[in-house]
Write a structure and sequence with these properties.
The complex is a heterodimer of chains A (about 200) and B (about 260). With about 200 residues, chain A is of the alpha/beta class. Chain A has one domain: Class I glutamine amidotransferase (GATase) domain (Rossmann fold), CATH 3.40.50. Chain A has 6 helices and 14 strands. In chain A, the strands form 3 sheets. In chain A, strands 2-1-3-4-14-13-12-9 form an 8-stranded mixed β-sheet, sandwiched between helices. A 4-stranded mixed β-sheet of chain A has the order 6-5-7-11, covered by helices on one side. Chain A has a two-stranded antiparallel ribbon with strand order 8-10. In chain A, strand 13 and strand 14 form a beta hairpin. The two termini of chain A are about 20 Å apart. The model of chain A has no long low-confidence stretch (mean pLDDT about 95). Chain B has one domain (about 5-250): Aldolase class I (TIM Barrel), CATH 3.20.20. Helix content of chain B is about 35%, strand content about 25%. Chain B contains 10 helices and 12 strands. An 8-stranded parallel beta barrel of chain B has the order 1-4-5-6-7-10-11-12, surrounded by 8 helices. In chain B, helix 2 packs parallel to helix 3 (about 85-95) and helix 3 packs parallel to helix 5. In chain B, about 55% of the residues are buried. Classes of the chains: A alpha/beta (about 200), B alpha/beta (about 260). Chains A and B meet through helix 1, strand 8, strand 10 and helix 6 of A and loops of B.
């Protein structure tokens, strides 16, 4: 059973529908006890870092998520669910979960042709093989919508990068935690493939 | 870098697919859910539903269509037509819409853009503009006027002034729909699209007038658009989504080719 964590941060039903499409058994919950009981956890999210942390703490979900990762349970973070895993975000100057050492920065470009948010389809290049990225082919594109991006301290956690006037980390892994800046649930067949692999993943790299 | 997007718009009336020609004489052309799934499997980058239902129970009908499509289509889904309040926007989001299009109601009451941006995130608010060429004048320095209610009602607002206002109020993306080009199949309004693309930092979706693959190429290059919206070209089977994407890719437009 996959538990999709609901903390008023957006698109939980889209993620659930995509899990159902690949044959995963997924429920939506905001109860930390469900996170503790889950076989696997998906931690999605859109919106701002400050509100996301407030909502997580109010429900005790911050503690439950960290405990799930420490216990070696497969946990997938998506978009805000990735950013919030680092130590700190420039967005709302917010302290975040600290599952992965590093910071979250805002895109800032001198060139006005580069739009922020980075929104649309972009190619993802694998930097470090990971079971969840198996089968990903050169040139495969995923759907992104974000104005901030993660900068992990340890380059070894970076699994994949995308290019938006320079490369940024768009997939990272540490232990049984894996996270993407892109939205697999909105990325067609290639995105569904990642969710399908997650539904079968044992949490080992 | 980001790929240019090919987007298809399905006009939905009473839960069925319709396509307008110059915004009058709509006719039914099939099941929106089936069509959406077909385009998704053929490589469409994003799907737009535009609700043109006039009846009073319209909200429930479009919400059902959105839910049914969201269960089968795993690309961004954008919905508009008659969005008048934050409640309309949040209902559509809950049904499965990723992006909300606002149009006429935002022209009548611009604060709607800011309210919806607050409620569901500015990046998810698409300001859809119907624009008519009127010639440059003191009232219309850009030579273009904003019209509403499906093109019937001129609003006395300059197109570029509305673009700037929409951006200031927090919209995340713009649809530039040329009333003059809509349904003609003679090509997008290139100059209008370029002018708006140059005047904003928001992504621009060109709409209205696509008839041949070359029209898409022109608006994504010369027109400066980030995305091209197609309707009748693909709805009537003259072209396929994958065929259009192959055409663009072969001519050097960066486009998503694996799906």
């Amino acid at each position: 059973m996959i538990v999709i964590v609901d903390y008023d941060a957006g698109n939980v039903r889209s993620v659930q529908r995509a899990c159902v499409e690949v044959g995963g058994d997924a429920v939506i919950s905001s109860d930390p006890a469900d996170v503790a009981r889950a076989e696997r956890v998906i931690f999605p999210g859109v919106g701002a870092a400050g509100a996301a942390m407030r909502n997580l703490r109010a429900r005790g979900l911050d503690v439950a998520l960290v405990a799930a990762v420490q216990a070696g349970k497969p946990v997938l973070g998506i978009c805000m669910g990735m950013q919030i895993a680092l130590d700190r975000s420039e967005e709302n100057d917010q302290e975040t979960l600290g599952l992965v050492a590093g910071r979250v920065r805002r895109f800032a470009f001198a060139n006005p042709a580069l739009k922020v948010p980075h929104m649309g389809w972009n190619a993802v290049s694998v930097r470090r093989p990971h079971p969840l990225l198996n089968g990903l082919e050169q040139g495969d594109e995923y759907y992104f919508v974000h104005a901030y991006y993660p900068v992990p301290e340890d380059p070894d956690v970076v699994c994949a990068v995308a290019d938006y006037e320079g490369e940024f980390c768009c997939a990272l892994a540490r232990g049984s935690f894996f996270a993407t800046q892109f939205h697999p649930e909105k990325s067609g067949r290639v995105g569904l493939g990642l969710l399908e692999r997650f539904a079968a993943w044992d949490g080992r790299a | 870098m980001l790929s240019k997007r090919v987007i298809s718009c399905l006009d939905v009336r009473d839960g069925k697919l319709a396509k307008s020609v110059k915004f009058v004489n709509t006719r039914d052309i099939g099941d929106p859910v089936e069509k959406a799934r077909e385009y998704y499997l053929d490589g469409l980058d994003e799907l737009v539903f535009y609700d043109i239902t006039a009846s009073s129970d319209r909200r429930r009908i479009i919400l059902d269509v959105v839910e049914a499509v969201a269960e089968q289509v795993f690309i961004p889904l954008s919905v508009g037509g008659g969005v008048r309040s934050v409640a309309d926007a949040t209902d559509l989001r809950l049904a499965g819409a990723d992006k909300i299009n606002v149009n006429s109601a935002a022209v009548r009451r611009p604060a709607l853009i800011a309210e919806c941006a607050d409620a569901v995130g500015g990046q998810n608010i698409v300001l859809s503009m119907d624009i008519r060429h009127v010639g440059a004048s003191r009232a219309f320095p850009s030579g273009h006027e904003v019209v509403i209610d499906g093109g019937r009602q001129p609003m006395g607002i300059d197109a570029l002034a509305w673009v700037r206002e929409g951006e200031r109020l927090g919209a995340g993306e713009l649809v530039v729909n040329s009333i003059d080009a809509d349904g003609t199949r003679d090509g997008y309004a290139l100059q209008l699209t370029r002018m708006i693309s140059d005047a904003t930092r928001l992504p621009v979706i060109a709409s209205g007038g696509a008839g041949t693959p070359a029209h898409l190429y022109d608006v994504l290059t010369e027109g400066g658009a980030d995305a091209a919206l197609v309707a009748s070209m693909v709805h009537y089977g003259d072209y396929t989504v994958s065929g259009l994407k192959r055409y663009l890719n072969e001519r050097g437009v960066k486009i998503r080719m694996s799906w």
